[in-house]
Amino acid sequence: MSSTLLDTLLDTSGDAAPEAPPQLPIRVIRSPKRRKTAAARLLPDCIEVRVPAGMTPDAEAEMVASLVDRIERKRAAEAGGVNLVERAATLAQRYGLHPPASITWAEQNDRWGSCTSARGTIRISTRLARVPAWVLDAVIVHELAHLHEPNHSPAFWELANRYPRQERASGFLEAMSGGHSDPCHAV
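Given the sequence above, the corresponding structure tokens read:
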């Protein structure tokens, strides 16, 4: 996406993107017990990544970078000051929708948000932690509408479009994802 288009979309929002927390040091542990998988966890003083001892340096670097990036996105989302529960409750009340049983940040690379209608749960992609508030709100309303209508029927869009900036947010997300505008699906 061109920086001019993104700048224009951001300028019209009135909301600044939250600052990311400082990056933590990374500790890599090469484990002879691991054969194929790697795992990372957040500790108070660092991000610990366990990788198979026999990995090539290039494969290890790629694996570590990927796992650290996932943890950093989740940290940024949680540190961003957005209380998803309060936000969803406010939006649900404002637009006549039911609040979710739970709403959390989740690592989702192919969706902006997802929900489980039967349980009333919503997951919001950590990739949205730094978008303007009106874009995040549009995705939350989209998922709240899915709690009523689990498909993209006209009845669903009637509910989702109660949010007045839904179409504009779809354009923002389309530009952000290189042409995919459905808030449920991105590449």
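The first strand starts at residue 26 and ends at 31. Try to locate this feature in the token string yourself.
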